[in-house]
Amino acid sequence: MDLADLARRLDQSADRVGPEINRTVQQQGRLLKTLIQLNATGRPGPNKITGDYHDSWKPEPFPVPDGGGVEIGTTEPQGRRLEYGFFNMYDSLGRFYRQPPFPHVGPAVTVLEHMWPDPFKSACDRIFGES
């Protein structure tokens, strides 16, 4: 490929950068949500009792220049307590707790972080591939 061809291909690819990166980020966000929910269905993570906490995990997409972002979270108040534990502490009602951590978010992130390069390499191939 010569420099003239490179310039043409980069120019053609510019419009694909944002949508492809956003698509890949959203896909990885959905995968992270699934891994968190999988970990929140029993030990070593928290047990799934009613399913309310499990089902409360939602991806929230947000725009960023030339791409997109996603935040995965829960609105349930027990999220931090389940992930990190609540050792020898009193809650706001004065009840004493000795609850061990049941990590489910951290392990999901660890699994996914080893997989992240490949989807983004594939996105680059789709962006800069032959037109």
Structural summary, described in words:
This protein has 131 residues and is α+β, with helices and mostly antiparallel strands. It has one domain (3-128). 52% of the residues lie in helices and 18% in strands. The chain contains 5 helices and 4 strands, in the order H-H-E-E-H-E-E-H-H. The strands form 2 sheets. Strands 1-2 form a two-stranded antiparallel sheet. A hairpin with a 2-residue loop joins strand 1 and strand 2 (67-73). The longest helix is centred in the first third of the chain and has 37 residues, at 3-39. It starts with a helix and ends with a helix. The model has no long low-confidence stretch (mean pLDDT 89).
Compact overview of the structure:
The chain is built from 5 helices and 4 strands; from the N terminus they run ααββαββαα. It is an alpha+beta fold and 131 residues long. It has a two-stranded antiparallel ribbon with strand order 1-2.
The class by helix and strand makeup works out as alpha+beta
- What sort of overall outline do the alpha carbons produce when their principal axes are compared? elongated
Largest sheet: 2 strands, antiparallel
Stretches with pLDDT under 50, minimum 5 residues: none
Our Rg estimate from Cα atoms comes to 21 Å
Q: Looking across the biggest beta sheet, what order are the strands in?
A: 1-2
The tally of domains stands at: 1
Layout of secondary structure:
Elements: H1 3-39, H2 52-55, E1 58-64, E2 67-73, H3 79-84, E3 86-90, E4 96-99, H4 105-113, H5 117-128
Name its key features.
alpha+beta; 131 residues; elongated; 4 strands; two-stranded antiparallel ribbon; 5 helices; two-stranded antiparallel sheet
